[in-house]
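[Q] Does anyone have a clean structure-token version of this?
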Amino acid sequence: MKKITKKKEIKNKINLNKEYSLEEAIEILKKYQKKNFIESVDISIHVNIDPKKTEQNIRGTTVLPHGLGKKIKIVVFTQGSNIQIAKENGADLVGGIEIAEILKNKKNKYDVVIASPDTMHIVSTLGPILGPKGLMPNPKTGTITENIESAVKKFKKGNIRYKNDKYGIIHTSIGKINFQKNYIQENFTALMYDIKKNKPTTTKGQFIQKIFLSTTMGCGIMIALNSIL
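[A] Here you go.
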């Protein structure tokens, strides 16, 4: 007998064309979660922008009140007294030109790269490596900063970066499926608040078009906008 995949199981049990409240969607995802590993809770937000217009593109960071449920590996490019500050606050790899060589090894995986402005001449040479991974430091995401201590603390706590893709959709994670339901809801609310705050002034009409919630191996469940906006 052909094995029924998790996605097919969900499709057979729920109406994927129906809009669910946030609470209902989380309950469904929890009900059909995988048993052999802890999945992430992922979100896709369709926003009313023209991605071809630079001024309408959305990029930002926000601190999730309950984090992502995983250890965040952070690289910090800096010098002087900031090296010790970064290490004391939990950065996993700290330095200058010497750590650039380490990052060129594609087997090394990190979640965030932070840089003080005085080291960007080093970091810029890593554009072909960091760029495709979405790890290139940027002042808009708080990853180019003079305040190394604050940046490391925020990202360790669960500061996530987000940006829209070429279709005007923002994809990110808001925690793990084993989180308490209210933790997922509060992380969701924090992210939505931040995204709405970054609505481009040139955007007309309803900003948030659609929202889908899913797990790593699950299919997307559409959220009823009138239940959360």
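[Q] Thanks! Anything notable?
[A] Residues 74-157 form a domain with the Rossmann fold fold (CATH 3.40.50.790).
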